[in-house]
Amino acid sequence: MASQEDVFKKLIAHCKEYGFVFPSSEIYDGLGAVYDYGQMGVELKNNIKKYWWDSMVLLHDNIVGIDAAIFMHPTTWKASGHVDAFNDPLIDNKDSKKRYRADVLIEDLLAKQDEKVEKECEKAAKKFGDSFDKDMFIKTNQRVIDLIAKKEEIHTRFVKALNDSDLAELKKIIEDYEVVCPISGSKNWTDVRQFNLMFSTEMGSTAEGASKIYLRPETAQGIFVNYLNVQKTGRMRIPFGIAQIGKAFRNEIVARQFIFRMREFEQMEMQFFVKPGTELEWFAKWKEIRLKWHKALGLGDHKYRYHDHDKLAHYANAATDIEFEMPFGFKEVEGIHSRTDFDLSSHEKYSGKNIKYFDPELNQSYTPYVIETSIGVDRMFLSVMAASYNEEQLEGGDSRVVLSIPPILAPVKVCVMPLVKKDGLPEKAREIINELKYDFKCAYDEKDSIGKRYRRQDAVGTPFCVTVDHDSLVDHCVTIRYRDTMLQERISISDLGRIIGEKVSMKELFKKIV
To answer: Phi and psi dihedrals of 57, rounded to 5?
Structure first.
């Protein structure tokens, strides 16, 4: 069985080969941690964004959307804390000359303790068979007890170091537990240093008259500075939300794992404004709603989990990640944060403008508290691809690579194929596409055998293939083939739109999450 690392390498190669993701500026040898979405990738990405956007603004009459500019007044980032506090703790290995995030090295160390416990449990399960009691084994096996105690010891020190911003202690943890560089295998580390992640540039026509501005490192601040504009023009009453999809930029020194951590990425964020004192209730509610949204796609409920933050950001009083099981372990895909009134209060202070909300029911003004749901489009894309990628052995020794992408997200919904390139079959196929193309992204393929064409469509995740044969010209029926089961059935051309429409409609998904 292939290792998860091997599967991940195959997935990255597949993304390039089939037009999902390309290295940016590849003809110039690429640019580190920057990627372009190809013809298939952009369709999948747009479908993910539509699923999120519609779930926010269609299903909730108190959530509206905006599209704020990437450039913002530089004081915005002073007020938000990014100028002073948007840092990563970095450490270099002197032998490999590679740079790492110290916190990620320690998180990987903690994950290794979990893996060791799991391996002990797997060994015991094989030994004891059906009589194996995992909970009892974990409580009574001395090796497992020691591993868990070691993990808790590391974790306690780690949390304290993060909360105290104690860079020396982060290095000490790395040294004490003999963390080695993944490349050189050595423990020859530099001190831990802070590095600000914001990209800066200059705005203005001359060097002397130019002012320093930043590429936004998050999309949330564009919502905060506009919240009163939206509230007044939309006559919104608290609680209400503002949704936004947009690009953000972070100068990640340790960008890795393909599109998981990039320097230019896209966020889908919704800031929900609530009455002070109700924020933790809304925090719990949005945690539940957002997990339902993910699980509704059917990628596997067991692949998701909540992870409460060890260190809260300076603005938060509660924070949870929704993590997804990537080929390289459980990783954050979405964050739900209770941001208190930090952002709005800070912008009010720095701007000198009154941006309080007047509550007509209470007949008083106050600064709203905010619940944030923030999801990375690129990480969501990667989770869909990782969960959908399958290498299947078929009967007769044949095999196929199939992307079992949820049909509503699939880049192409249906491929129409004439059995042969003559006798009026290509014309009939084109006629069918011309009927379907108003509702669904369609493809046409007439090259190679039908079997090879099916394999091509499996590899890009097309849920339906329709074959037009000589009988189709007489009985007005076609053969529809289903991607996941490979079953085929004969149906009337007039039923095609309904059958495909039922499977690719977001309506059924939305019913699961409201």
So the answer is: -90, -20
- Span 24-77, pLDDT tens digits: 999 999 888 899 999 999 999 999 999 999 999 999 999 999 999 999 998 999
Return contacts of 457-460, CB within 8 angstroms, 24+ apart: 457/412, 457/415, 457/483, 458/400, 458/401, 458/402, 458/403, 458/483, 459/14, 459/18, 459/400, 459/401, 459/402, 459/403, 460/18, 460/19, 460/40, 460/403, 460/411, 460/412
DSSP string, 48-65: HHHHHHHHHHTT-TTEEE
On the CB side of 23, CA atoms within 13 Å amount to 13
**Residues 97 and 74 grouped into a single domain:** no
Range of the domain at 377: 1-78+197-397
C-alpha neighbours within 13 Å on the C-beta side of residue 168: 0
One-letter-per-residue 3-state SS of 214-251: EECCCCHHHHHCCHHHHHHHCCCCCCEEEEEEEEEECC
**Domain CATH code at residue 508:** 3.40.50.800
Mapping DSSP onto H, E and C, the string for 292-338 reads HHHHCCCCCHHHEEEEECCCCCCCCCEEEEEEEEECCEEEEEEEEEE
Is residue 230 a contact partner of residue 237, using CB atoms and an 8 Å limit?
A: no
Angle (CA) 204-209-215 rounded to 5° is 40
DSSP H helical ranges for 80-140: 82-85, 102-128, 134-140
Phi first, then psi: give them for residue 357, nearest 5 degrees.
-100, 130
353-404: pLDDT as tens digits: 999 999 999 999 999 999 999 999 999 999 999 999 999 888 877 889 999 9
CA 66 to chain centre: 21
> Quick one: 222 and 314 in the same domain?
yes
Other Cβ atoms within 10 Å of 75 Cβ, number: 12
pLDDT of 235 > 80? The answer is yes
Per-residue three-class SS string for 361-424: CCCEEECCEEEEEEEEHHHHHHHHHHHHEEEEECHHHCEEEEECCCCCCCCCCEEEEECCCCCC
What is the C-alpha to C-alpha distance for residues 21 and 25, in angstroms, rounded to an integer? 12
At what angle are helices 496-504 and 425-436 packed, to 10 degrees? 50
Q: What number of helices (H) and strands (E) belong to the chain?
A: 18, 23
Cβ distance 417 to 306 under 8 Å?
no
Where is the domain boundary, 368, 397, 426? 397
pLDDT in the model for residue 2: 58
Q: How far apart, in whole angstroms, are the C-alpha atoms of residue 215 and residue 70?
A: 6
